Amino acid sequence: MGGCGSGRHYGSKYTTEDYKKLDVRYLQKQGILGLSSTFTLSWSRNGEPIGNIKVCPQGDRITLSYRHRSNGDEWKSEEYSVSLEWTPCNYGGSRAWFLCPVPRCGKRVAILYGGTIFACRSCHRLAYTSQHESPGDRANTRAWALQKRCGDWGTLFDPLVRPKGMHQTTFRRLEWEYNRANAVSDASCMKRFGMNLVV
Q1: pTM above the 0.85 mark?
Q2: pLDDT tens digits along 143-180
Q3: How far is CA 22 from its chain centroid?
Q4: I want to staple 53 with a disulfide (CB 3.0 to 4.6 A). Which of 44, 66, 89, 126 is the partner?
Q5: In what order do the strands lie in the sheet with 118-119?
């Protein structure tokens, strides 16, 4: 993986899925930000370890320590601080954010992506996986996500089912989105295979 500013652009094949992620929401939920000692996080792929990082919380920042190498070069050790910022939540409490450690960036983000440095998506010039999908594929992904949100694991040919406790207005909005996503996905599929809709 190249580091920050390596020349990769949104049109490249590299996406957020290709990089290790450090999510401040996970750290906050696990209570790691409130620890007074170093904590080690590990990543794996298909059950195989692919890396780890030491996180040392220090109040308004965390210190990251890890080793990396690119293209078979020698291993290099890194250690630097990432500032934290807290914003109030609507129903009490507060939410933590990373401030991207790249000089002249400092963007407030929930996720940092690891290369030679853990930085925001913009600094690494990464695209989301969905940006490489066709409109039809994005619509299909959206339809599945809406079905999952409603707790229904049928097929996309099935109507959306309102889960118990969901407000009727919310369900109608999701149902409209679901039907629209299915229509876009179906139209894209038919176009791909040279089919015409006959009414």
Answers
A1: no
A2: 778 877 887 666 666 778 888 888 889 989 988 988 88
A3: 10
A4: 66
A5: 20-23, 111-114, 118-119
